[in-house]
Write a structure and sequence with these properties.
Two copies of one chain form a homodimer.
Chain A lengths: L1 H7 L3 H8 L7 H14 L5 H8 L4 E7 L4 H16 L3 E7 L4 H13 L4 E5 L18 E4 L8 E5 L1 H14 L6 E4 L5 H16 L8 E2 L4 H13 L5 E4 L2 H13 L9 E6 L12 E5 L1 H16 L7 E5 L1 E4 L12
Parallel strand pairs in A: 1-2, 1-3, 3-4, 4-5, 5-11, 6-7, 6-8, 8-9, 9-10
Antiparallel strand pairs in A: 10-12
Helix pairs in contact in A: 1-2, 1-3, 5-11, 7-8, 9-10
Chain A binds a DNA duplex (30 and 30 nucleotides) through α2 and α4.
Amino acid sequence: MADVAAIAGVSAQTVSRVANGLTNVDPSTKDRVVAAMNEIGYRPNSAARALKTGRFKSIGVIMFTLSTFGNMRTLDAIATAAAQAGYSITLIPIALPTQVELLGAFDRLGEHAVDGIIVIVESHILDRSDVSLPTGLPVVIVDSDAGDKYSVVDTDQAAGARDATRHLLELGHRTVWHVSGPEGSFSASRRRDSWEATLVAAGADVPEVLIGDWTTNSGYLCGLELAKRGDVTAVFAANDQMALGLMRAFHENDIAVPGRISVVGFDDMQEASSFWPPLTTVHQDFGAVGRLCLEKLLDQIDGNSTSRGVAVIPTTLIERQSTAAPASGA
Amino acid sequence: MADVAAIAGVSAQTVSRVANGLTNVDPSTKDRVVAAMNEIGYRPNSAARALKTGRFKSIGVIMFTLSTFGNMRTLDAIATAAAQAGYSITLIPIALPTQVELLGAFDRLGEHAVDGIIVIVESHILDRSDVSLPTGLPVVIVDSDAGDKYSVVDTDQAAGARDATRHLLELGHRTVWHVSGPEGSFSASRRRDSWEATLVAAGADVPEVLIGDWTTNSGYLCGLELAKRGDVTAVFAANDQMALGLMRAFHENDIAVPGRISVVGFDDMQEASSFWPPLTTVHQDFGAVGRLCLEKLLDQIDGNSTSRGVAVIPTTLIERQSTAAPASGA
DNA sequence: GTGCCACTTGTTTACGTAAACATGCTAGCG
DNA sequence: CGCTAGCATGTTTACGTAAACAAGTGGCAC
């Protein structure tokens, strides 16, 4: 900056003003400064700027595994919205969704330069009242029950699971089986609870739950189990990938979908419309989740907003060809 | 830091030494300092540290769309490896893979605090000799032809496409059709060129290429085209998602896969093994790509390495059930 | 003509840290 | 017993920027 000032024949302060686009600079002076900047390839030093202003223009995202479809879409939306707001994203992956790992990530982020943090960790650990994140930094959490302690953005998973289950019941199925996500997952238990409540409300039997781990392969294994039974006509899988695994198992056992068994998924991943058969599923608006996360976080950073409360993003049931009325003989 | 020093009764410099784990500190003094740190919840200010040291302990990743499977896996590996090396990831998404966008992202990253940059943009823009990135920062590029100017990590797409094509020829197919990725994509043209070269080398006809855009839906549309023809027995799709779309189109037209048409994909995404039929595809080791990117970048940052050259990650053909010998009548 | 105000530009200072240098203490050796 | 080497610790300084304050210039109204 000093070099730029020398070349342009002005003070460093004036260079600073030009760099920050302040108004009180004479146009001719500004031109000289800009020319000098280009001449020596000046780039403002963000570290010094951050040191002076106390703002980093960066937000941290703590994620457990990028490899699930929804997390990635959410991250994409956050990153895009952040870029528009002039913020960059600092990504901290954690290897396991445990409290220790999460707190470690928080520490690392505390040492790095962020103005706020978004946590995307599908786990109940933050819901326990005895677990708290270090304070001092604005935080937004995705898909959690901790709305009383933090600001939370949540997809309306209960409504989605209810719609999926009800859809199958309305088609005439006596009951609906469920392939759940893993035990510790908040989203999994929300979907499962809502499925069960919907069955109970409709007076339907509640079959034993099969538990997967979100992967297609776990869905496949559950599908093999279900294929052995003769009484299954409808299955609600807690995500599209497991639904895909289910359908593979049914295909291999010559069970027609939806002829003999109807299948519903959850997520509406891009590929779902091209599964065979095209999958009826619950659409989640991950883009809206990401954008809202950023909006709430920036509000906190700017001090305009409370730091708790839950915002819910609605879901939509997308009917494709994997569901139908049960066979007349059933 | 000053507060910590006052509480511990030492100088700020000693606190700095403790914070950085230097050796020349008396254990009892160190304990006092650590106790004081915990007492007031001291966190080193990374901006000040970066200002002083010139190192940010952060690397930037410029990506075009997180929503493709491979990019995400690569990012995941980079982030994990970076965390282990004590670096954080700053993510800069770009809306379009154009030169303007890319340079803009580069500028933004230059203003932010990074020690090096990884570019994951499927596009030829960097290959043109008249396009250069601003210098001064170590750069690693994924899947590009610019190895003479930059350090590049590339999957061996040519070998993968060759293996896929040859696999189908060896099964007895007269020729192999191809559904390509979009025009501007480096990966797409590499796979397409290699497919064509393999056919020519085998003395097979080279059918007209169908062009998709990586999405399942574009694959579906191409599949509808192919379904109209009677002479297609084998198709190599440039990624798994388009292969899925192809198979949907074939299913809808009662064309058996692999009975009447064999299909091969590219990527080996997690779901591919549960497609119906399970997809024969070319496995890419995205984890290795990400790890190698980071390794090469850190070498450059530490000054141990040249800033150009190509590293190639091998691919593996995974044979599943979407390929078979052509029907005897064909 | 005088005084005041608006506007541009310069000067001083401080942000929190770590490098370089300086000091003081202890132990070991002749 | 005195000198020196080595180690723990303190002092000074600088990193690049932006806020706060100061100063200079010109125009306009009375």
